[in-house]
Amino acid sequence: MSNTIGPGKARQMDALWCCPRCRSALVSSNGSLRCDGCWAAYELIGNIPDLRVPTAAWIDFDRDTADAKRLRAAAASRPLDALVREVFAARPRWSDARVYHRTQQVLGGPDRSRRELDDWLAPIARARGTVLEIGCGTGGLLAALPKDQRAIGIDVSLVWLVVAERLLEQHGRRPTLAAAVGEALPLGAASVGAIVALDVLEHVGDLPQVLREMDRVAAAGCALACSTPNRFSLAAEPHVGVWGVGWLPRSHQPSYVRWRSGEDYAFVRLLSAHELAGLAAQHTRFVVSVKVPPVPEEELANMPPRRARLARLYNRIQSWRWIRPLLLVFGPFFRVVGTTVR
Question: Can you give the pLDDT of all 342 residues of the chain as single tens digits?
């Protein structure tokens, strides 16, 4: 796996990305991208530009960059599942069973995404223009999109983008990837025809700014699809497995989670359906609707028996039309779909 890029690839990146600081054009220069306006320079990790700007985030950028370089150096000689396991195994207090489960989730990501593209993500699969995935992670959705659809993925983690590059190659895809933050998207105004953000919005440092950036890059008629856990769910908080987190004042949530689980709870800010719809109306041109989905079958298969029984009961109740307004308040997660007004 080469660490250099050819002039053709460099020209493609020059045309696609813009400076996240001043929005000027980027040009290739000595193995990096340089801004024509403010002269900021951005490193290339193989074919992946690092277009992140200083922003509060759940990872340390310098450490993530060093880890990504080490992982990429080893990527050519290791199978994909070994790379994924290595990333998860480096996390403190993760058991072998948890590492295995999450690795299988990553490997099954493209198949799971294909089912969603046939279902609630169908407007994304039909979208005209470039599809942008914010928080693309390991690239499962990008691998599942129609092959004639132009797609780009950004993520705050270069480590996961190295994994995504490998997964996409394995599935015969080469969507364009970049490390970037949602608060400063490295794209021009009105440049994308669809935006996807799955289980991302609850982790950003400045959600109103992320929404404003999504609005800025969205073309007229741009499709939107987001998913996020519900703050006031009656189920356990999905990131840490602790009950009742969202019902506490946000200032008390980190200490409560540490007491109950020993886990860190930085950069998790769960939203209610009402809160997210209100923020979208305040900061974007998207006209959105909020939907309460059933718990997917693949998640049911990995739940303990008692939780699986409760989840199946929830799925039966979820089909009752009269109860859906209550589920918007108390359901485990929700989806937001919309379109920019023309």
Answer: 434 444 444 444 446 899 999 999 999 888 899 999 999 999 999 999 999 999 989 999 999 999 999 999 988 789 999 999 999 999 888 899 989 989 999 999 999 999 999 999 999 999 989 999 999 999 999 999 998 999 999 999 999 999 999 999 999 998 799 999 999 999 999 999 999 999 999 999 999 999 999 999 999 999 999 999 999 998 889 899 899 999 999 999 999 999 999 888 999 999 999 999 999 999 999 999 998 888 887 777 777 788 788 888 888 888 787 887 888 888 889 999 999 986
Does residue 38 sit in the same domain as residue 58? no
- Strands of the sheet containing 48-49, edge to edge, are 26-29, 32-35, 41-45, 48-49
Query: Which range marks the domain in which residue 24 is found?
Result: 1-49
* Amino acid symbol at 223: A
SS (H, E, C) 95-144: CHHHHHHHHHHHHCHHHHHHHHHCCCCHHHHCCCCCEEEECCCCCHHHHH
Task: Give the helix/strand (H/E) hosting 170.
Answer: helix 158-170
Q: Which of 31, 33, 30 is nearest to 14 (CA)?
A: 33
Q: In which region does residue 244 sit, left (phi positive, over 0), alpha (psi from -120 to 50) or beta (all else)?
A: left
Do 35 and 132 fall into the same domain? no
Dihedral in degrees, nearest 10, Cα atoms 142, 144, 150, 155 = -10
80: amino acid identity, one letter:
L
Say yes or no: 26 and 76 in one domain: no
List CB contacts of 277: < 8 A, sequence separation 6 or more: 288, 290, 336
Q: What sign for the dihedral angle of Cα 118, 222, 179, 254?
A: negative
Residue 91 and residue 138 in one domain: yes
Residue 253 within a domain: no
